[in-house]
Amino acid sequence: TAERNVFFAGILLGISIGIRLSFALLPLPFIFIIYKNPLCRSLKEKLILISLFFLGLLTAMLPAAILFYFSKESFIFGNFIYPGLNTLYRQESGYMNAMTIIGKFQYLKDLFLQPGNFYLLLTLAVFLPSAFIIKNSKFHYKSEILSVLVFLPFLLAGSFAATPSWYQYYYPLMPFLLLACLYSMKTLFTVTRNRTIVLLVFFFMLFQTNLHAKFSIFNIVTEVKTAISNSSWQTMLIRAQSQEIRRITKKTKILTLAPVYSLEADNQIYKEFATGPFAFRVSHLINKEQRNKFNIISREELPDLLEQDQPKAILVGFEGYLEQEFINYAQANNYRKIILSSGKVLYLP
């Protein structure tokens, strides 16, 4: 039923927002689509559906609300303040790619010009006009296509929210573009007499997209083998490397910007580096009061910390120059250098 569908749509969107804040604008197109739905004839019906949608949305966001209730300042810092600090860090480090609105549009253009993405857009450009040219057909998917297209500016705004941009931020656009393409193709295929031409164009575009895609029907056998062989999973690789560390270190405290390896090796970590490199690299942009509140330590404060709590091991090789202070400390205190099979370096006193 419509009531059930909008409720679960709200739940799924709430989960998405809880995972990635860039989806926070998507309730707006959902409300618009529900309100404009021709099947909802009365204002009362529309308000009921919108209320059910928000009920699902709020239900899915209860975990985030609980975290906010118990740790308001940390919640605000992590979700709203830190992204701005990270942008400042990128600017200081000289990173220039996709740092402005114009740069983000250029970045998006470069992504769309990649062959796998380009042929999808070309397919859409071929089939989309059919939905608006063909009229008086019971197979016309104009309203569905418009509903899909309404999401695009909000998805784009969400993709632009973080600075700098990374390619994965724009992934949410692709399923919607693909859906609009399929609706358009279905419209043209259903009403035209030249179905063979439609199929030929579609399969040509599909072939070209898969030919250039990283994951496609042409390498699916290889990808399936990789998925079945768990030894190549990233989690299993981390596990194997951690076991090597565990054989060398026994229940000890490790100084590292890659805490997952220490924890997986059944060792302890410094709480100041629980976030890996993320807090440490912006620590100089945070005042001392906030650093103390959120257990963040700056480079200047690091020597005092290590003097009070000397590390029994130092693991480096993950974050480049950010680890230089760790290396300097190990060398100054005559730590023994062990090169692991992965190429990472473990220092022992």
Quick recap:
The chain is mainly alpha-helical and 349 residues long.
How are the secondary structure elements laid out?
Layout: H1 2-19, H2 27-36, H3 43-60, H4 62-70, H5 72-92, H6 101-112, H7 115-133, H8 142-161, H9 173-191, H10 195-212, H11 220-228, H12 234-248, E1 253-256, H13 259-264, E2 268-269, H14 277-280, H15 288-293, H16 302-308, E3 313-316, H17 324-332, E4 336-339, E5 345-348
Parallel strand pairs: 1-2, 1-3
Antiparallel strand pairs: 3-5, 4-5
Shape: elongated
Structural class: mainly alpha
**Helical residues, percent:** 55-70%
Low-confidence stretches: none
Report the end-to-end length measured between terminal Cα atoms.
66 Å
The number of helical runs is: 17
Q: How many strand elements?
A: 5
Question: How much is the average pLDDT?
Answer: 87
Strand composition percent: 5-15%
| Topology order in helix (H) and strand (E) letters | HHHHHHHHHHHHEHEHHHEHEE
Q: Which value, in Å, is the CA radius of gyration?
A: 26 Å
Please describe the biggest sheet, giving its number of strands, its sense, and whether it closes into a barrel: 5 strands, mixed
Side-by-side strand order of the widest sheet: 2-1-3-5-4
Describe it.
Helix 2 runs antiparallel to helix 3 (43-60), helix 7 (115-133) packs antiparallel against helix 10 (195-212) and helix 9 packs antiparallel against helix 10 (195-212). Strand 4 and strand 5 (345-348) form a beta hairpin. By secondary structure, the chain is mainly α. The longest helix is centred in the N-terminal third of the chain and has 21 residues, at 72-92. The chain starts with a helix and ends with a strand. The protein contains 17 helices and five strands.
